[in-house]
Write a structure and sequence with these properties.
Keywords: FAD, Flavoprotein, Oxidoreductase. The chain is of the alpha+beta class. The protein is 34% helix and 19% strand.
């Protein structure tokens, strides 16, 4: 797994592999347990394919009761568990552990209830993001968060990573559209947080669970808010001679008090790769392409398009194209959503980074990334949610060339450090996982990290849920209490650390 260090496997658990597989097969019978090497091969990685690790065993439960029993068994026998949705995570959050059970939730794939009166839909976590919109579109409704991987990514994974998408600028991330969850704790206890009501009493435990990356529990049911489709939606393409000019236009549009339904940006390498891949009608003679969508009543949309055109022109736009039909608008977005696979045509491999910055620093950060590209001798294609400053630089490399993966990792780390330096954060929607775990110290001090781990301890005292992810240094829960180092001796020296 390259230079990324994971917890050392427990030899005792490894020795009991056959026994564990038998016990889990009794809980999830039939084809619910996969323990052969060939059978487990599809689960050895997630969307961060540069890193791979075979699990101890894979379990595919179908009911909340089965999930509860599996977690209770693992809790009682001190076996780590890695929850997994569709495996589209780009931060290594679903990469398995050698001594851990991989709990794959793909069989939880039913839409349980559509409640138009309360504008809510309840689904199992394995339902794909796009399937929610498809389930309600005939009545003129949709689910707002729309990650580029929405055709494949699961709602449960969206909750784990607090996913966003191209329309999150106006309509919010998963956290802003999530009403309630059913979650199973490592002890096997089933807990409900939130519901169809707008707000929950007491502590915001729903907010705590959202974006927790499988470290606190396993989601088995999700209730989300649906919205009525807008009367009118039109998209505009703006081309610029420089990425900095495009970034300036983004900041100026927001500064003018205009909040588009979506605002996305791509640079020349991404534009050319995407146009060759899907033929979205993008201009090929610009350095940066800005896609701005306005939605709402027709009169308001027509007015705002004019205002946005004025702002883009003042920032130096050299190309303007307004969608005239719904099919044309869809084509503009098809290109953007196909950008990640399209860039795969440019190099054998790439790392998709994820950092968020203040919008006003876009020109500065884009210029700095070009300098880093020269320094590392690696190309980078930029595709990002410009409206909320969520960057997705795609660092191109060839894993078959010795040292290139290491260079790509260092390049990516420098980008994320820069994001924090200019007032941003390490991740916008892909999560920390293992990719950014060792960079958490760039953003948080030891006190911050200790408090975060105390929350983890409240839910999972034995650190059995997704260990080795998010936190750069392992602290056992006992160490976070009223313990201290005495004469250079750590308390509980028998506890493993990594």
């Amino acid at each position: 797994m390259s230079g990324l260090k994971m917890p050392a496997p427990n030899s005792g658990v490894l020795a009991r592999r056959a026994e564990i597989a038998r016990a889990l097969s009794a809980i999830v019978p039939g084809e619910g347990v996969v323990s052969t090497q060939d059978g487990m091969r599809p689960f050895e990685t997630d969307g961060l394919t540069a890193y791979r690790q075979m699990p101890l065993v894979v379990v595919l439960p179908e009911t909340t009761e089965q999930v509860s029993k599996v977690l209770r068994y693992c809790h009682e026998n001190e076996i780590p568990v890695v929850p997994r949705g569709s495996g589209t995570s780009l931060s290594g959050g679903a990469i398995p552990l050698e001594d851990g059970v991989l709990l794959a939730m793909t069989r939880f794939n039913r839409v349980l209830e559509i409640d138009y009166e309360n504008r809510a839909v309840t689904v199992q976590p394995g339902v794909t993001n796009l399937a929610v919109t498809k389930a309600v579109s005939e009545k003129g409704f949709y689910y707002a968060p729309d990650p580029s991987s929405q055709i494949a990514c699961s709602i449960g994974g969206n909750v784990a990573e607090n996913s966003g998408g191209v329309h999150c600028l106006k309509y919010g991330l998963t956290a802003n559209n999530l009403l309630g969850v059913e979650i199973v704790l490592i002890s096997g206890e089933v807990v409900r947080l939130g519901g169809k009501h707008l707000d929950s009493e007491g502590y915001d435990l729903l907010g705590l669970v959202t974006g927790s990356e499988g470290l606190l529990g396993v989601v088995t049911e999700v209730t989300v808010r649906i919205l009525q489709s807008p009367e009118t939606a039109r998209a505009v393409l703006f081309g610029f001679d420089t990425s900095e000019a495009g970034g300036a236009a983004v900041a100026a549009i927001i500064a003018a008090g205009i909040i588009p339904g979506g605002m996305e940006m791509m640079d020349r390498p991404a534009i050319h790769a995407t146009e060759a891949y899907v033929g979205a009608g993008y201009p090929l003679d610009v350095e940066a392409l800005l896609i701005v969508e306005l939605d709402g009543p027709k009169g308001e949309v027509d007015h705002l398009i004019g205002e946005v055109e004025k702002i883009a022109s003042a920032c130096g736009s050299v190309y303007v194209r307004v969608s005239q039909t719904e099919a044309e608008r869809a084509a503009f977005w098809l290109g953007r959503k196909a950008a990640f696979p399209a860039v795969g045509r440019l190099a054998p491999d790439y790392l998709c980074m994820d950092g968020t910055i203040p919008r006003k620093t876009l020109p500065q950060v884009l210029a700095a990334m070009r300098e880093m590209s020269v320094h590392y001798g690696l190309e980078v294609a930029n595709v990002f949610h410009a409206g909320d400053g969520n960057l997705h630089p795609l660092i191109l490399y060839d894993a078959n060339i010795p040292g290139q993966l290491d260079k790509a990792e260092a390049f990516g780390a420098d980008i994320l450090k820069l994001c924090v330096k200019v007032g941003g954060v390490l991740t916008g929607e892909h999560g920390v996982g293992i990719e950014k775990r060792d960079l958490m110290g760039e953003m948080f001090d030891d006190i911050d990290l200790s408090h975060q781990q105390r929350v983890k301890c409240a839910f999972d005292p034995q650190h059995l849920l997704n260990p080795g992810k998010m936190f750069p240094v392992l602290h056992r829960c006992a160490e976070l209490g009223r313990m201290h180092v005495h004469k250079g001796q750590l308390p509980h020296p028998d506890l493993p650390r990594f």
